[in-house]
Amino acid sequence: MITDALRVFVTVAEQRHFSKAAELLNLSQPGVSLHIKNLENELGARLLHRSPKQVSLTEAGSILYRHAKRILSHYEDARQEIQLLQNEVTGSIFIGASFTIGEYILPGKLAAFAGQYPQVNIQVTIGNTQEIIGAIRGNQLDIGFVEGEVQASADLEIIPYMKDEMIVVAPSDHPLSQSVVVEQAMLQNQVWVLRELGSGTRAFSDHFIQETGIEAKRSHVFTSSQGVKEAVAAGLGIALLSRWVVRKELAAGDITELRIRQLQLERSFSIIRHKEHSRSMAVDVFLQKLLFGKKEG
């Protein structure tokens, strides 16, 4: 590091002797001389007047000495601040979350964490699963929360977080809403309301429709789960959504859960991190609290 060379230079300048500087730095005298030579070559200027008894600074050396002291001081300040960040719960956490997690699960978790660690600044980005994975890979986020399966790769750390129950919902006045139990065959030729491609909910819906051999009469696409459930409540069609998303609407009677015979749908939520992304104590503590206190929903 350049700071190593600057530290050697400053020590030589203050000791006015190569061997004394080498002794203080626990380096060999040739090693000290090499650092100085490399600095002079890099800057294109002689930095020290050498004599058998002592060395002294040239004009260029005096300029470098003044700036080197400042650089080393700033570097030490930065090092101490980083150490503080690593050992105390301060700093910032940049979180990404797919819509279901970011809008319906994470806010409560963050409120509890922020109450306990008020010195931590939290910024949350909400997007679909593929957008969050892309932001993690681009080192734009510290951690991400995503829905569904995440393909294993060399650059991502994938931590299982919790299970999520998926249910089929319909408008309250839909003909199927009157059935106590719905047969899978009764889902044929229905109008479906779907999320956009790239969404974890859309991937799950597509897989379900394909695996059960359901033929959709037509489909409508929304770019948020809020839009999907509002469309269902308005009578546009039926949808497959996380129970987290529709709990309030189910309780209020705005939409109805279709209980499908012999069918229980479940997916995974995962935490993802870039393996090379720098870590802080704030992020580590947040994850510990989250994983220790997690509950399946």
UniProtKB/TrEMBL annotation:
<dbReference type="InterPro" id="IPR005119">
    <property type="entry name" value="LysR_subst-bd"/>
</dbReference>
<keyword id="KW-0238">DNA-binding</keyword>
<dbReference type="InterPro" id="IPR036388">
    <property type="entry name" value="WH-like_DNA-bd_sf"/>
</dbReference>
<dbReference type="Pfam" id="PF03466">
    <property type="entry name" value="LysR_substrate"/>
</dbReference>
<comment type="similarity">
    <text>Belongs to the LysR transcriptional regulatory family.</text>
</comment>
<feature type="domain" description="HTH lysR-type">
    <location>
        <begin position="1"/>
        <end position="58"/>
    </location>
</feature>
<dbReference type="Pfam" id="PF00126">
    <property type="entry name" value="HTH_1"/>
</dbReference>
<dbReference type="GO" id="GO:0003700">
    <property type="term" value="F:DNA-binding transcription factor activity"/>
</dbReference>
<keyword id="KW-0804">Transcription</keyword>
<keyword id="KW-0805">Transcription regulation</keyword>
<dbReference type="InterPro" id="IPR000847">
    <property type="entry name" value="LysR_HTH_N"/>
</dbReference>
<dbReference type="GO" id="GO:0000976">
    <property type="term" value="F:transcription cis-regulatory region binding"/>
</dbReference>
<dbReference type="InterPro" id="IPR036390">
    <property type="entry name" value="WH_DNA-bd_sf"/>
</dbReference>
<protein>
    <submittedName>
        <fullName>LysR family transcriptional regulator</fullName>
    </submittedName>
</protein>
